[in-house]
Amino acid sequence: MISVIQHLAREFRVAARHKTEWLMPLLFFAMVTVLFALGSKPGDPRLAEMAPSVLWVGALLAALLTLDRLFRGDLDDGWLEQVFVAPGAPTTYALAKMLSHWLLTGLPLVLLAMPLGLLLGMKAGQGMNALLIGLLLGTPILSLLGGFAAALTVGLPRAGLLLPILVLPILSPVVIFGSGAVRAANAGLDSSGPIYFLAALLTLGLTLLPWVASVALRNAFD
Amino acid sequence: MISVIQHLAREFRVAARHKTEWLMPLLFFAMVTVLFALGSKPGDPRLAEMAPSVLWVGALLAALLTLDRLFRGDLDDGWLEQVFVAPGAPTTYALAKMLSHWLLTGLPLVLLAMPLGLLLGMKAGQGMNALLIGLLLGTPILSLLGGFAAALTVGLPRAGLLLPILVLPILSPVVIFGSGAVRAANAGLDSSGPIYFLAALLTLGLTLLPWVASVALRNAFD
Amino acid sequence: MWTWFHRLASPPSFYQFSEIVSPWVLLSALGLLGYGLFAGLWMAPPDYQQGDAFRIIYVHVPAAALSLSLYTGMAVAGIIALIWRMKLAESAIAALAPVGASFTALALLTGMLWGKPMWGAWWKWDARLTSELVLLFLYLGIIGLNSAFVDRRAAARACALLAIVGAVNVPIVKYSVDWWNSLHQASTILKFGKPTITPEMGIPLYISLAGSYLLAGYAVLRRMQNELLLRERRANWVSKLLSEQKQP
Amino acid sequence: MYLLSAIAVDVARGDRALLEGISFSVAAGDLLHIKGRNGAGKSSLIEVLVGLRRPQRGRVEGLQSQQMHWVGHRNALQPDLTLAENLRSWCSLQKLKTANVSDALEHLGLRALRHRPARTLSMGQKRRAALARLLISPRPLWILDEPLSGLDTQGTLLLGKLMNAHLADQGGIVVTSHQPLPGRIARVSVLDLA
Amino acid sequence: MYLLSAIAVDVARGDRALLEGISFSVAAGDLLHIKGRNGAGKSSLIEVLVGLRRPQRGRVEGLQSQQMHWVGHRNALQPDLTLAENLRSWCSLQKLKTANVSDALEHLGLRALRHRPARTLSMGQKRRAALARLLISPRPLWILDEPLSGLDTQGTLLLGKLMNAHLADQGGIVVTSHQPLPGRIARVSVLDLA
Ligand code: HEM
Ligand SMILES: Nc1ncnc2c1ncn2[C@@H]1O[C@H](COP(=O)(O)OP(=O)(O)OP(=O)(O)O)[C@@H](O)[C@H]1O
Ligand SMILES: Nc1ncnc2c1ncn2[C@@H]1O[C@H](COP(=O)(O)OP(=O)(O)OP(=O)(O)O)[C@@H](O)[C@H]1O
Ligand SMILES: [Mg+2]
Ligand SMILES: [Mg+2]
Q1: Residues E154, E117: contact at Cβ < 8 Å?
Q2: Contacts of B111 (CB under 8 A, 6+ apart)
Q3: What is the mean pLDDT of each run of 10 residues along chain A (222 residues)?
Q4: Measured from the CB, is residue C184 less than 6 Å from ligand 1?
Q5: Which residue lies with its CA nearest to atom 29 of ligand 2?
Q6: B74 touches B140 (CB < 8 A)
């Protein structure tokens, strides 16, 4: 636990080198939304109905943007080797990496989703709640899965097609259920089903993925 | 001219080494659109009307995913230095880089756009043509602009997120006109106006941006 | 003339110059703004359609106009910085970005405030509104880029390039109202030829317009001074300056 | 009593066999100098010794990697973190106290640079930073892969002193180096992979 | 007749002044050995000589970078391309014929490795690959930054031979090295930045 925090501290120090770092995913998310709006006819009512999917896709994108490089730097400068000869378990390192990604990218995105939703004409209410809860559960799943994918690419450079074929199918149900929950809520139906599914997925990922990722990372060395 | 081709040859050899690099954007593009298809009930007319903006934004963002790495590798292993001490003009190098990005990412996306458009319920016809022509002109603009932004941020720690913030605002006119053309065509109006605008923008970019990018790259050295 | 210009262009003399000028700029800015806003908000007659809501114009239009002019200025400074590698122009870019960003934000804000009564909505995905929002992102992008570099010169040159390339957006914001049938009203005031606005509404507007330009100028001058001090902190004119300020 | 011993170790990279039947042991106060042409397999062997890579056959006995200091070809410096931050985060990774960090930097003449991001250091300065880790906490076994590469003469002599001091208080060293080792070292044994 | 001469050159990194008033010239058959402690500014100076970095003050006259071979700290090898591919693409960048590539690799003992991706090479093998460029086409001036780092003894002697041969047919060399240069070189002048 403590070592997780220590790993995190390092990540944050690196991030802090970039004063505007934390702002960038937000700006990107905002830009995606604006682009969607730009693409459609000015003052189009359908925008509000598409909003949940728009926001989900935007969040997914913003998360993906930084993920693939998660471990690359540590491999290149030799830090990864140090992690594996150090006393602590590499799993905590992988977990810290994923966690830092969520804290620096996922969480801010969730917070921004509400104002953007309003901007797209969503009404505050059931639908909005479903959206936020869904994102709150979905973004960490992205960080975990994406982190695992990044570990794979670092570990087995010849992973080839394996990677996207492995990750995307697992990723898309998250997004589908996420925006599904919103539509259900908007339609006045009970949206707890998909939400529970996301929660289950998250707990599963949290218990397994950091460990799997650390195993994948080990591969970089033999 | 010849040297552009020689640069290109190198890029393709590297790309051939790991296939995922250029497959990722395609799969991402497909996922985004499929998500939208799943996002609304089957045979929903709204979907077809939102299709242009979905495809436009999807394609552009997918193309963005791979941009931040355009020059990074060459900087790290010292190839960029070699380019600047070599006889040829760095502009041709920058141009080749942008071109390779378009050929490996932009073009495949355009080709994928048609089936995806049909999937979203667009009819083959004026609208579809306008979409494809628009993308055919728009994606190279993205590769040029994105390449320029990548050159600006090449020395920087985390270009990954900074880059889209730099590109998307400048890109927004492309989206406006691109999807505008499709809507015009769908409405049976003449869509040549926005198309010409895109063409003009592309020629402008082609003449200026590779050079500007090379200046930006030079900036990484003093 | 040129020699004078060149002397002014050197950081220390520019620093002294703006040290002398900027107080007066500020003073006249406040004066004009004070009168313009007072005249606009109290003396000018209410609009026959909009009633008193229209009075936001006295903040909105200047802010919006500045959001465009400042960006243009930044692009011009960028060109100078790249061609002549002029320290002054480089620091101007860094100074202009945040000022421009805040005026853009102000234009958006006042616009939204105005939009509620006029169009019955805070926000519409309208060409001009959206493009102005995009302009804000452009500014933020430049600020982000600038802060991402350690070396100030490299930062300035990068921002210069970005500003120049980004300038394509400015005409789109400016003429969006004419190119697309926008909710937003077309240019009536800020255009060449005969403006179509009654004098007693127009005069105060022009005055507050001039005032806010001066205000922006003041902010830019001061920021440029800071930037110069930061970049030249190792130069001896700075250390001399500081030691002088220590004496009394 | 041995600090480390390799028993009939085979090393391979991918499917290419590199080394076969490597056996040696390092006692307290010993220095083992591993020599061999480029590509002989020195670094690969060292990665086996520190437990980063499994030997194809045979086994390695002795101290755990927690009781070794290992400096490889790469310096493990995060380019955006300052020198001090880099060493401190390494300490927390190794569960060491960060008290000695500034002394270690001082000792290697990096004091003035401690607040510089690692990316702005020269090649040799980076190498020195990597070696500074040896001084942060005393550990019985040092494993150094080409420690002299990039070091200037002063740095080379300094490292010689440090190694001698370490051997003097019953430490052990395994080092690869193409150049002759600096300083007069009492108990050297050479393993030539050529 | 000088191949290269620096006239009162000042070098700075960021806003930190490094070197001031550096002047020297290299004639055909001369070798200039640049010495100096870690961080003295050798690599920065060399980047000025090859035209990668502008000098703060002063100027550099003589051959264009098209007539130099420059080997810096970094080897300019794309990790995923094979050795041969790397050198060939460098040739096309430098507008050179690729005919000599295999000979050059042969000469540095890399023949067997030419179809290996660069990432799978040992440190010294990568360095040799970088040096192989010197042999692909004859150019009057060589500029080498720590060419010996990572080379084994055989490689060091080999480089010594190559440098002597180059000087013998009226070439010039500017080299930084912390270790003494191999081989007996006739006309050496030393520039010490310490
Ligand atoms: C967020 C919403 C808005 C934005 C982003 C916005 C932006 C702008 C911009 C960029 C200009 C151009 C300034 C120039 O030409 O230099 C402008 C001018 C103007 N705006 Fe807005 N505006 C908004 C809302 C409104 C509203 C609701 C009204 C009132 C109905 C309004 C009235 C005007 C007027 C009268 C001008 C001066 C036009 C001229 O005569 O040149 N604006 N605004
Ligand atoms: N990118 C950079 N930004 C700022 N300072 C730098 C940068 N790179 C190097 N320096 C500083 O410039 C000085 C000279 O660096 P340089 O690499 O030229 O030294 P060097 O003589 O080559 O040292 P070495 O023998 O270790 O190679 C060093 O003090 C270093 O800290
Ligand atoms: N990642 C890798 N995959 C496959 N083979 C590799 C890899 N890394 C190194 N090799 C090969 O293994 C052999 C030994 O490499 P190693 O780095 O151990 O050599 P070394 O003795 O350290 O050489 P040097 O003196 O240059 O450091 C070399 O022939 C090299 O080509
Ligand atoms: Mg080795
Ligand atoms: Mg150096």
Answers
A1: no
A2: none
A3: 79 72 72 78 72 81 73 84 83 92 89 87 83 91 88 68 65 80 82 88 92 87 70
A4: yes
A5: E39
A6: no
Residues in chain C: 248
Q: How is residue C228 written in tokens?
A: 């110069």
Buried b (16+ CB within 10 A) or exposed e, B85-99: bbebebbbbbbbbbb
Q: How far is C233 from chain B (nearest CA, A)?
A: 19
Per DSSP bridges, beta strands D31-35 and D188-192 are parallel
Structure-token pair, residue D28: 């307290």
- Which of these, E100, E146, E93, E104, lies nearest to E123 by C-alpha position? E146
Cβ atoms within 10 A of the Cβ of E184, count? 8
Residue ranges near ligand 5 (ion) with Cβ within 5 Å: D 123; E 43
- Residue in C50, C186, C71 with CA at minimum distance from that of residue C128: C186
Assess whether the C-beta atom of D125 lies below 6 angstroms from ligand 2. Answer: yes
Q: What is the rounded distance in angstroms from the CA atom of residue C166 to the CA atom of residue B167?
A: 9
Q: Is the separation of the CB atoms in A177 and A134 below 8 Å? A: yes
B window 73-102, beta carbon within 8 A of E: 73-74, 77-79, 81-88
Choose the mutation target among B142, B163, B219, B222 for the interface with C, i.e. most C CBs under 10 Å.
Answer: B219
The one-letter amino acid code at A198 reads L
Identify residue A207 by its one-letter amino acid code: T
* Span from the CA of A113 to the centroid of ligand 4 (angstroms): 50
Please write the tens of the pLDDT for every residue from C143-169. Answer: 988 988 878 888 999 999 999 999 888
- Ligand 2 atom closest to residue D122's alpha carbon, by position in its atom list: 17
For residue E192, the CA-to-ligand 5 centroid distance in Å is: 14
Q: How do strand E2-13 and strand E16-27 relate by DSSP bridges?
A: antiparallel
Q: Which residues contact C196 (CB under 8 A, 6 or more apart)?
A: C188
Q: What residue ranges of chain D have pLDDT lower than 50?
A: none
Distance of CA C176 to the CA centre of its chain: 20
D neighbour chains, 3+ CB pairs within 8 Å? A, E
Q: What spacing in Å lies between the alpha carbon of C196 and ligand 1's midpoint? A: 15
User: Chain E closest CA to D70's CA: distance in Å?
Assistant: 17
This prediction's pTM: 0.85
Considering only CA atoms, which residue is closest to atom 20 of ligand 1?
C61
What are the chain B neighbours of E85 within 8 Å (beta carbons)?
A: 13
CA E72 to chain centroid: 6
Mark out the alpha helices in chain C (DSSP H runs).
2-9, 11-38, 57-84, 87-119, 127-148, 152-166, 169-179, 199-231, 236-246
- Indicate the DSSP class of residue C248: -
Which pLDDT tens digit goes with each residue over B54-102? Answer: 888 888 888 887 787 789 888 888 899 888 888 878 899 999 999 999 9
Q: Report the gap between the CA of B1 and the closest CA in chain A (Å).
A: 33
Ligand (nearest to CA of E152): 3
What are the pLDDT digits (tens) for B74-87? Answer: 888 889 988 888 88
Cβ contacts of A42 on chain C, cutoff 8 Å: 124-127, 180, 182-183
Pairs of CB atoms within 8 A across B/C = 64
Round to whole Å and give the CA distance between A184 and C210. Answer: 54
**Which tokens belong to B203?**
């020629």
Contacts of C218 (CB under 8 A, 6+ apart): C22, C25, C26, C29
Report which residue type is found at C145: L
- Ligand 1 atom 29 nearest Cα: C114
Supply A157's token pair: 């450079």
Nearest to B62 by CA among C143, A111, A164: A164
The rounded distance, in Å, linking the Cα atoms of D27 and D42 is 20
Q: Which residues of D137-150 are buried (b: 16+ CB within 10 A; e: fewer)?
A: eebbbbbbbbbbbb
Bridge partners for D190 per DSSP: D33
